[in-house]
Amino acid sequence: MREMLKLFIAVVVFSCLSGGVLAAIQNVTRERIEYQQLKFVKGPTIKNIMEGCSNDPLIDRLKIVDEAKEMNLFVGEFEGKRNTVAFETFGKGFGGELGVIVGVNLENDEIIGVAVTTHSETPGVGSRAKTDPDFATQFKGLSILDPFKIKTDGGQIDALSGATISSRGVCGAVVEAGEIYKRLKPTIIEKVKEKQG
Amino acid sequence: MAKTAVQEFTKGLWAEIPPFRLVLGLCPILAVTKTVENGIGMGIATTFVLICSNILISLLRNIIPKKVRIACFIVVIATFVTVVELVMQAFAYPLFLKLGIFIPLIVVNCIVLGRAEAFAAKNGVVASLADGLGIGLGYTLSLTALAIVREVLGNGTFYDIPVFGPTFEPFAFMVQAPGAFVCLGLMLCIMNMLGKK
Questions:
Q1: What span, in angstroms and rounded, lies between the C-alpha atoms of B174 and B83?
Q2: Of A138, B45, B99, B148, which residue has the fewest beta carbons closer than 10 angstroms?
Q3: Where in the sequence is the domain holding B128, given as residue range(s)?
Q4: Which residues of A are less than 8 Å from B83 in CB distance?
């Protein structure tokens, strides 16, 4: 019995020490890992939307809690003014969740760019939502507060032929982005000012 | 002591080179040697784990109770593997994405546990360090050698730099799984022929 206890304690002590060491390392690397993940997964898309900005939107990001969910908002600087923000929302596509990053100008609520990030749409059909630049540019210059719909549903967006559901999914994500934007705009402006000042 | 440490080191490079002489660690060697970069990355990660676990286990060999030694070894190894995983995510994210599941799987790599059980648990710290370094380097060399053959023939590149002219038709078989088996088999055969003399 005594020996059992000794063995038991040995393993427990070992595991505790190992857990402690790992927690410490995880703590140190967490920030960097998060940045790396953003840089390699969403970074290229964000750079694309924020073409011509003079800062690194990945570093100048805001964390805002929206309805108990923490969101990353990427702030872009144009002509010396931090007036653009980009963030990711999700819509329902044909093959599941469809992630879309929307960039908005804070001064006039205009969309500066829309791009699909993660999706599981049919390759070559729904996946064109990501690869076909003509589709995404339709959103450019429109107000984010507009109700976006594809033409079949009485809206203003030309759907990708053969990929109505994927197109609807992108519109849904942009509409969702509009809702979030409406809710968060005051907070965003306040936080951007705080950072700049 | 100094002389034996050198011997422990060099045996890992030839006499006991892991995949060819001990025929251990074959799962990662088949899976990650598609490109030289992956091969070297995997080799370095494994070497780091080997050295650290060898040193620590050798230091603790009189404290760890015999009956639960395997459990304790695995805790030590798993800790170092997780450290590697976190550090790689923080500093070499693209490589982490390519190696993916094979980084956590270093835990169950027979070489690491094998060296802990067969060597570090019975020898001093210096000898264990030399052993870990030698076996690790031997493993890295083997991975690199196999990766060079496969990448150069299968992809026409070396470390992503094209080695043949544009007219070269890549021997795609080499970068697929069967190519790995054939290539490894031929290398084993050559090693055995050289060893017979």
A1: 33
A2: B148
A3: 2-145
A4: 21-22, 25
Chain A residue with CA closest to B75: the answer is A15
Domain presence at residue A85: yes
What pLDDT digit, counting tens, does each position of B106-140 carry? 998 889 999 999 999 999 999 999 999 999 999 99
Distance (Å, rounded) from C-alpha A145 to C-alpha A184?
A: 13
Cβ contact, residue pair B79, A26, below 8 Å: no
Q: Which residue from B113, B105, B127, B3 is spatially nearest to B45, judged by alpha carbons? A: B105
* Predicted TM-score (pTM) of this structure: 0.77
Q: How far is CA A156 from CA A7, A143, A144, A150, in A?
A: 71, 12, 13, 6
Which is nearest to B101 in space by CA: B114, B88, B117?
B88
User: How many domains does chain B divide into?
Assistant: 1
ipTM of the complex: 0.77
Q: Which of B75, B81, B84 best probes binding to A when mutated, by most A CB atoms within 10 angstroms?
A: B75
Strands A81-92 and A69-78: antiparallel
Asked if the structure places residue A122 within a domain, the reply is yes
Inter-chain contact B87–A40, Cβ cutoff 8 Å? no
Partners of residue A29 in chain B, C-beta under 8 Å = 86-87, 89-90
Does some domain include residue A35? no
Cα gap A195→B135, rounded to integer Å: 52
Domain count of the fold of chain A: 1
